[in-house]
Specification:
2 copies of one chain form a homodimer. In chain A, helix 13 runs parallel beside helix 15. In chain A, strands 4-3-5-6-7-8 form a 6-stranded mixed beta sheet. In chain A, strands 1-2 form a two-stranded antiparallel ribbon. Chain A is 63% helix and 5% strand. In chain A, strand 6, helix 22 and strand 7 form a beta-alpha-beta unit. At the A-B interface, helix 13, helix 18, helix 19, helix 20 and helix 21 of A face helix 13, helix 18, helix 19, helix 20 and helix 21 of B. Chains A, B: Its main location: membrane. Chains A, B: InterPro entries: SLC26A/SulP_dom, SLC26A/SulP_fam, STAS_dom, STAS_dom_sf.
């Protein structure tokens, strides 16, 4: 029990010198990668650079204690940072102090929500975010983030909540662009793209092992930071208008609770919920992918607690919302991390940087950080997913396109809420018109198939309708309409059989519809039968009065139904009594 | 085409003297029944009594032109009148003139929405209202309506938006009760209950035919009106505090458009949508039940147009929202109505009453109308449905109880919106944890059953998982978690087969989950197979890359999968190569 809530008790028992070495190497590499990312994502969230470092210390320790993934690397990530900027930016706060306090409170609320969902085992709430919606949302976020960073490359002031606003604001200010800033920024972008695509093959050709070459290439952003900082400081470029990070307070963050302001919490609640869900979904899919590679397991509900405590830890140490990051987790995994201790060691690395090296980043140009962000987020943009989804399912594509467009045009929160709502509506729409077919017997077999697709035997006195969907409120009326039409168009019918092999559920609405259908068919002189009802569905029906009221029978198989009703209809035709004597209900044996 | 939008063109062709006689008799009986109802429901909606008459003339003509039910009787009904009172009451309008104007506008907006839904063939929106939610909503509405009428029985002023408020307000004013009013009201209630339960058997015993006795009993409210009006007028009870309907303008209503006030329309929009949906659902289920008794059909999308034009007609003639009424449609049917012309004749009847008889209702006590309402709505209260639903499905019961409690405590709009939201969430929750089972082969057969329920053959190298639900975004993660756990707990597994006979849909989210599962299984050295995939699902999968990437095969039947994989695993064990050479994909033939 204790181990379930504190997974560290599981892996700590087998910790040894080998694991320690692996974890230390991975931690060193992730630290180098995390420095520019944490600074850059703080900038993206509209916060001072050091807040990014604060969000990369205690959260990693908390996750190491409570998380279930061996290799997930948590910290500030691009999409959550953008959502933080949108959430806090909406509040129109008086100054940057209030802005920071709100971001810190957002991490706290988000942490509480995640822990609450974990304790209540509500991880399934994240199911509401369908893959197409998440994918479109991330693509749109990537585009907005990249656009929002262009101002730093140009060295101008321009903002906006959506893509159009951002681009228009940039267009208005483009003549104020600062040339040295642009040179640094464009240079960094080109260098980082080159590192990403060309450096690794070059290093491999120079004789390095591919994995080492790959990891070295990840240090590109740090190199860009170092070079541009040196150039800026050396050439005194700040006097020519190059904006830099500026003086950063040295030392570790103080601990404390975020402002407990009821109105602020209320205003941030929905944003915190969205950030929690998006962060959780992203994090869990990375963690699951990496765990599977080593036949390990993660526990989604405990992951909620791990990510929740990471956010609480971030908040009490003056940081902003965090979650598991895709690229840095992959690096952590590739670098050989074996346990969450690697995350704790990374935390020590970032803490040392915060204590000792912050004076070095005073002259770090914001343009370099913007370049880091742009290169990182453009890999999130995936228009191919739109194309793949279009060819697979129009309905999913619709939800995807709506999420993409609304996120770009109306902003992140409207985009994701509309996407979730639309995907629910479309699912209900799909299931409200289920596939159904009149079936007949394939000659010489006991199989029943669609009369429109196969040459099958039928009987004008017996109609068999197969519905390929669970029966529930969204399609209960469909069934009533379908059967009403069938009976009106087939005046010679005496028996209607509903064939249920694909019916996994009959809810109370559908039950009432079936009772109404039974009653209406009885009024029309037609008997109503069921066939191939599944075990669990039959178990539920036994708690209703449908089986008592049913004018017909429940048949184990459709073939049984066909044989029995054919005999009955034939004998009724001979004796001239169209209504045969009621047959006692025969129920299907409980099948699993 | 024209006949689809004007169903009157269909039945008018065969209209003859017999049909005319039947329709005239039915119209006479429904007119007598409709007079007290229309006055009473106007009172319930907080409107002058004559507005109820106006809402019972043109709407009936419009429905006769555009409706598809032969016997539905439209007009003011209890639940919609309550919803009208709630919607217009929320606006805190300055005077009763503005209140009336808002009610008239509400009918217009509701009519436009219904027609729009009909033209766009969106009748399925009504599917969102599940039977348990509607049933609980109507029970709660019945209780609120009955409670809200008690003030008229007592002759005091007391109001409130929910049951508690109403009862508290009554409690505070009970010492102001007016004795003559109470005597009239209580007398009417007792008389009407007696008529409802005892009069018919008495008449039958006196020699009348049961159907005639039944129809005569329906005239009870008119008799109560006549007697109490005579007593009140004769004994001058108005001077003793008995409140009466008062002077009613004589003559037909003038025609005109409702106020085209954008702000008002916006405020009424959600209420109009809810009223439209509730009214439509109620009306369609009555119409469908009655149509089935004569093997007739109604067309739900054309019904939307019929009810929509009835509401527009009500609005332009100064009336409030209307829909098909349950009890009066049954009376219309039982009285022998054969075509919608019966409705048009009823309209003529009510028009004559409005022209000639309104002076007679000046001294009609409001207490008598309240008694009519109370006796009518208590038949809507159905606590038995709660019990039946409890024993059938806990999930549906939860939605039902929440709707009931929230409607009583928070009012009609909150109640129904919460009920709809909750029933959606509960459905997603149910399907997000679908029934699934590991299956094995029943010895000596080709059937595969749950290994926990049956003594079946299994193979430690082959796991077969059957999922009894469509795979979509709400349960995609469930599947990933389930398979992750299976593989982690069964280290000797080499093949995983997903058995899909109950999978009616695989959406884009589930497709990505299957791709991820395939990839993760491949990383763990396990091959992933599908079996018994349905034709339409297979058709869709062919538009994806899953079939190309799949490490295993798609088998037509689970038995094929078992035989092939057993052979393969056995030969791999002999030759010592655990990974057999890839087998070309074999796909299922398209089944309907």
């Amino acid at each position: 029990m204790l181990q379930r809530y504190l997974p560290i008790l599981g892996w700590l028992k087998t910790y040894n010198r080998d694991t320690l070495t692996s974890d230390l190497v991975a931690a060193l590499i992730v630290t180098v990668m995390l420095i520019p990312q944490s600074l850059a994502y703080a900038l993206l969230a509209g916060l001072p650079a050091e807040v990014g470092l604060y969000a990369s210390i205690l959260p990693l320790v908390a996750y190491a204690l409570f998380g279930t993934s061996r290799t997930l690397a948590v910290g500030p990530v691009a999409v959550v940072s953008l959502m933080t900027a949108a959430a806090v930016g909406n509040l129109s706060l008086p100054d940057s102090e209030a802005y920071l306090a709100a971001a810190v409170a957002l991490a706290f609320i988000s942490g509480l929500l995640l822990i609450a969902m974990g304790v209540l085992r509500l991880g399934l709430i994240a199911n509401f975010l369908s893959h197409p919606v998440i994918s479109a949302f991330i693509t749109a976020s990537g585009l907005i983030i990249a656009a929002s960073q262009l101002k730093h490359l140009l060295g101008v002031d321009a903002g906006g909540d959506n893509l159009l606003q951002i681009l228009l604001a940039l267009g208005n200010r483009i003549d104020e662009a600062n040339l040295p800033t642009l040179l640094i920024g464009a240079g960094a972008v080109i260098f980082l793209f080159w590192v990403r695509s060309r450096l690794k093959p070059l290093l491999v050709r120079a004789g390095l092992r591919p994995r080492l070459a790959d990891l070295l290439a990840k240090a590109g952003p740090v190199l860009a930071m170092a070079v541009t900082t040196l150039v800026t400081a050396g050439a005194g470029l700040t006097e020519q208008g190059v904006r830099v990070v500026g003086e950063v307070p040295q030392g570790l963050p103080g601990l404390g609770l975020p402002p407990l302001d009821a109105e602020l919490w209320q205003q941030l609640f929905v944003s915190a919920l969205l950030i929690s869900l998006v962060g959780f979904v992203e994090s869990v899919s990375v963690a699951q992918t990496l765990a599977a590679k080593r036949r390990q397991r993660i526990c989604p509900n405990q992951e909620l607690i791990g990510l929740g405590s990471a956010n609480i830890a971030s908040s009490v140490s003056g940081g902003f919302p965090v979650t598991g990051g895709f690229s840095r987790s992959v690096v952590n995994f590739d670098a050989g991390a074996e346990t969450p201790a690697a995350g704790a060691f990374t935390a020590v690395g970032i803490a040392l940087v915060t204590l000792l090296l912050t004076p070095l980043i005073e002259f770090l140009p914001k343009a370099t950080l913007a370049a880091t962000i742009i290169v990182a987020v453009l890999s999130l943009v995936d228009f191919g997913a739109l194309k793949r989804t279009w060819s697979y399912s129009r309905s999913d594509f619709t939800a995807m396109l709506a999420t993409l467009v609304l996120t770009l045009v109306e902003g992140v929160e409207v985009g994701i809420i509309a996407g979730v709502g639309l995907s629910l509506l479309l699912y209900l729409y799909r299931t409200s018109k289920p596939h159904s077919a009149l079936v007949g017997k394939l000659p010489g077999s006991e199989h029943f198939r669609n009369i429109d697709r196969h040459a099958v035997e039928t009987d004008p006195r017996i109609l068999t309708l197969r519905v390929d969907e669970s029966l529930y409120f969204a399609n209960a009326r469909f069934l009533e309409d379908r059967i009403e039409a069938l009976i009106a168009n087939n005046p010679s019918v005496e028996h209607l059989v509903l064939m249920c092999p694909a019916v996994n559920l009959i809810d109370a609405s559908a039950l009432e519809s079936l009772e109404a259908i039974n009653q209406r068919l009885s009024d029309s002189g037609v008997r109503f039968h069921l066939s191939e009802v599944k075990g669990p569905v039959m178990d539920a029906l036994r708690h209703s009065s449908l089986l008592d009221e049913l004018t017909g029978q429940v048949f184990l198989s459709q073939y049984d139904a066909w044989e029995a009703l054919r005999r009955e209809a034939a004998s009724a035709a001979v004796t001239g009594t169209p209504e045969a004597t009621p047959v006692p209900h025969r129920e299907q044996s409980p099948a699993s």
